[in-house]
User: Fold these one by one.
Assistant:
Number 1:
Amino acid sequence: MYRDTDTPIAEDTRARMIAWRRDIHAHPETAFEEHRTANVVAQALALMGLPVHRGLAGTGVVATLTNGDGPRIALRADLDALNMQELGAAPHASRCAGKMHACGHDGHTAMLLGAAEHLARHKPFRGTVHFVFQPGEENEGGGRVMVEQGLFDLFPADAVYGMHNFPGLPRGRFALRTGTMTAYLDTFEIVITGKGAHGAMPETGIDSIVVAAQLVNALQTIVSRRTGATDAAVVSVTQIHGGDTWNVLPETVLLRGTVRTLDAKIQDRTEAAMREICAGVGQTHGAKIGIDYRRGYPGVVNTPDETAAAVAAAASLVGEAQVHTDMAPAMGSEDFAFMLQQRPGAYIGIGAGEGENDPPVHNPYYDFNDAILPLGAAYWVALVKRQLPAAG
């Protein structure tokens, strides 16, 4: 049975993790604007005696700890906050109107800093660990930008690992799976061009509003009638814009939305079906329908050997029974996927829940659970000790 006192993280490091986390939480910065956050991280790493590289994806920070020859691994945390207003009343609540650490990236950063401090102090391994602090995870693909700007050329790694807090999973537990962990994320924008007319004389125009209604319904058949019952997919129209007054049929209507899939083949088929439906509905009504379909984040796909290493590291801390190795894939998305496209690796969820009423991530009352900071840092340490040979 896991006890917090079982983790190897020293009391002074635990105190610093809380201080780092709450300071970052109080000063949230969104994608590619994490200048203060990057300064906090870089200064902390420098005080540990680690060489620090800055500038990948603008505000990214990477520090390296080498202790002799051996394998090389990368550990990744995310830096950015969300564009939303915090409603909680904690002393460390956001001081920036309209910005909030509502996904726990403040905690992810603090846990990796804590692990870096422990490893730099004790050096229990032979090889190299890169500590990667990535900007712009929320919507903006900072992971992709870091990779494109040479992350693994500058910091060669045999494997890369990520972690995220799960408020819906009880504290003291971990969850992951081999294969697809999170969904492929795509977005779309559809412009319907009809023929504007007086609202009392619709026969003189082509009603783009009616076409839009038909199209929204038709798009739902992709999941209900074109996708197998065991193949997960979501097609959601999330915006409809059209019209300015009560008695005019608008010339155009704009639809926007998102597509989520768990398999690249289903992703391809869904896009093809959307284009086919748009063409067919447009022809049926005599309207022009243009679709801009944008591929976003790929799915996070854990590789078998690295997943087994992550499971073993977590189990060494909490016991095998507390590591759920067959979690259902999530329809949310994560740009850690871009790093996993370049290197084998694994992404794990760490339980942060204390009860049924805990706010979920992306909720205005959410706050990272500081009680899991030592366990998260200890997981990183256990993973390094498992993946790199012991110091001799």
Note: The longest strand covers residues 159-170.
Number 2:
Amino acid sequence: MAESNLESMTRSSWSGKWAFILAGAASAVGLGNMWRFPYLAAKYGGGMFLLTYLVLVFTFGVSMLLLEITLGRASRQSVIGAYAAFDKRWKPLGFLAAAVPFIITPYYCIIGGWVAKYAASYVLDSPADIASETFFGSFITSEFSSFFWMLLFMAITFVVVALGVKRGIEKVNLVLMPALILMAILLSAYTLTLPGAVDGLLYYVKPDFSKFSPELLVGALGQMFYSLSLAMGIMVTYGSYLLPHEDIVSSATRIGVFDVGVSFLAGLMIVPTSFVALGSGEAVAAKAGPSLMFGTLPTLFESLGAMAPVVGCVFFLLVLFAALTSAISLTEACVSIVSDGTGWSRRKCFIITVAVMVIVGIFVNLGYNRLSFIEPLGDGSSLLDLFDFVSNVVLMPIVALGTCIFVGWVIKPKVLIDEMKEGSALKAEKAWVAMIKFIAPVLIVIILVSYVAAQFGFVSF
């Protein structure tokens, strides 16, 4: 893995291990933790889903994190260069991996704009107006408002990335991550003071082994895979900024801890609240994604009376912070990919990335008004749904599967194990090799097949 002396001297780096851990955690903690994890936990009986998710994160999830972070640090490159540094024949897999953040970032910023709009609305509008059936629909189909909030969210994200790794990403994560966790704890604590919340808490945390099923396993597996920012090019990029001799193993484990912790708190905020407002935890399982975040939850918040504006604003501010940290990591991955691939200055690559994101974001957002007649995945689908399907359901599992084959069978795991042991005590070396060569590929194929089938209505998760 030859690397030029010039590249070694000029490449950005984290100021320390905890700066990297916070950045990795900030990337992992995103919208999926807030709107999909609670839905799945409620749907699959709470405690049993939590237990399954926990086991998967600290086996499959951390193993894949270790692979991607080490691949980045060993090569000192983002995804395209990382694969090519070990075997140039596998460079096409790097291009496939590079496409993922470029597809995700524009539509992620659209959803981030929705969250920003709702956070502001709890200051400017009444909870009753926000909870009305027409509020969300009229907003996303607007030919001005939805674009304004998307561009505002993009502007905040781009400013942080423009400041660089140490002056921008590190410092923002140092503020946003503790603030996010503090708000999640406070909201969870408030939720548990509501009458009837204890029943919801018990439903959420007490495992019922009779609830275990193949559907629960696949649901937890998919949630874990997408939540940890695997196969998005992010962890490879962030790993490439990690200095030699930093402890990769403990860092990856701590990122997993952050992800599990915030996911747990998100469920703690939402599942017991559904008991209070609707009488059962299953109520929240009726809807997922945008319907839960922008439809069900505002209705639940409205039922809290005088506390509705405060709870609503704090909740959406929390979600906004989670969305921003993930959008920042996605954008940074894109800038790094362009920079490593072209050799141009970071400033030039940043401008190109911004231009692409804005243009694609506007195009995708038009799918809710001027281009709403385009329904690529069937009746009621949008351009955003198409981008999400291509990136999350198709490309990410394919990239992850290819990466496991590449490391497990082409360059062989020992290459990365030697890199991991620089500063780390890798106690489960044989287990990690078995995971990457045999177990992870099978699990990834299950994710790919199951979620493609779910998209076309053959199964439901």
Note: The longest helix spans residues 308-342.
